[in-house]
Amino acid sequence: MGVKGERDGPSPHRISKEKPNQNLKNIMSNLSMEQWGEPIGPEVMVHSTSQQAVEQLAGEIAAGIRKRTRQGGRYVLGLATGSTPIPLYEELVRLHREEGLSFEKVTTFNLDEYYGLSPESEQSYHHFMQKHLFSKVDIAPERIHIPDGMVPRNEVERYCAEYEEAITQAGGIDLQILGIGRTGHIGFNEPPSDDSTRTRLVTLDPVTRQDAASDFGGLDFVPKEAITMGIATILEARTAVLLAWGERKQEIVSRSLASSPSSSIPASFLNLHQDAAYLLDEAAAPEFQPA
Fold first, then answer.
1. Which residue among 72, 94, 195, 201 is least crowded, i.e. fewest CB within 10 A of its CB?
2. 42-277 has which fold?
3. Are 32 and 288 spatial neighbours (Cβ–Cβ below 8 Å)?
4. Mind spelling out the 3-state secondary structure of the chain?
5. Burial (CB count <10 Å: 0-12, 13-18, 19+), residue 20
6. How many CB atoms lie within 10 A of CB 196?
7. Domain extents in the chain
8. Where is this region: Disordered (predicted)?
9. Which residues, in sequence order, are CB contacts of 11 under 8 Å at separation 6+?
10. In this structure, is the dihedral angle defined by the CA atoms of residues 246, 251, 22 and 175, taken in order, positive or negative?
11. CB-CB contact of 111 with 185 (8 Å)
């Protein structure tokens, strides 16, 4: 299945599919699969724990980095923030420290940043990424790209176009890590966001702001806007992996998997991607009932 704007060249890896349990067969039935082995939507992989899931994904990322390094190229990694990817970053740091995984040839692009927050703010995603990954591995600062939340408003459109161009100049994103919000957002693409959207300034949904309130010491302190990659930008990644842990994510995961691509559930556009996966723990796994 092709994707508009699809990059040339193969992904350096493909997330391996596990034999589905009954729940996964039911999930795929809801995605109109005729039979297992002929998927038309994302792969769905359920692990007993989130730690098992991130160990699998970190291993795939490490293999991709090492393959590109041997080939003399660079590996381009799209990164997410929030509590969900923290265990993944911890595992990547462990691989760096204990197994010699080098990030010297890795280039990164983060999905988003709150608008109006300086990089030095403890709530900024610049600070988050330094705390959980960048300060602990051997990545060159010039290879790190995070949207600038302090761009003057009259320069935002130009800046966002430059962010898109930087991704293109890097050769496109090899693997994009995603979380999912209660609104169905990926990045900060809130409903209604469709698959034509590019990096831009957006208004955050009240639900998203409420979910972030504890991090900011209250709802009044949560920014109302953010700069985010668009859905079209995300879909151009060679591989996209959405992570979700816990019962709190089960409902929106179920809805996004069962939905036709719709701007009302932005994550549902992953159903169009040629190489996408949902990586879940058991608590987040949908419970579709057999027909």
1. 72
2. Rossmann fold (3.40.50)
3. no
4. CCCCCCCCCCCCCCCCCCCCCHHHHHHHHHCCCCCCCCCCCCEEEEECCHHHHHHHHHHHHHHHHHHHHHCCCCEEEEECCCCCCHHHHHHHHHHHHHHCCCCCCEEEEECEEECCCCCCCCCCHHHHHHHHCHHHCCCCHHHEECCCCCCCHHHHHHHHHHHHHHHHHCCCCCEEEECCCCCCCECCECCCCCCCCCCEEEECCHHHHHHHHHHHCCHHHCCCEEEECCHHHHHCCCEEEEEECCHHHHHHHHHHHHCCCECCEHHHHHHHCCCEEEEEEHHHCCCCCCC
5. middle
6. 10
7. 42-277
8. 1-23
9. 64, 174, 175, 238, 239, 275
10. negative
11. no
What is the spatial distance between Cα 89 and Cα 57, in angstroms, rounded to a whole number?
10
Q: Are 219 and 238 in contact (CB under 8 A)?
A: no
Question: pLDDT for 45-55, tens place per residue?
Answer: 999 999 999 99
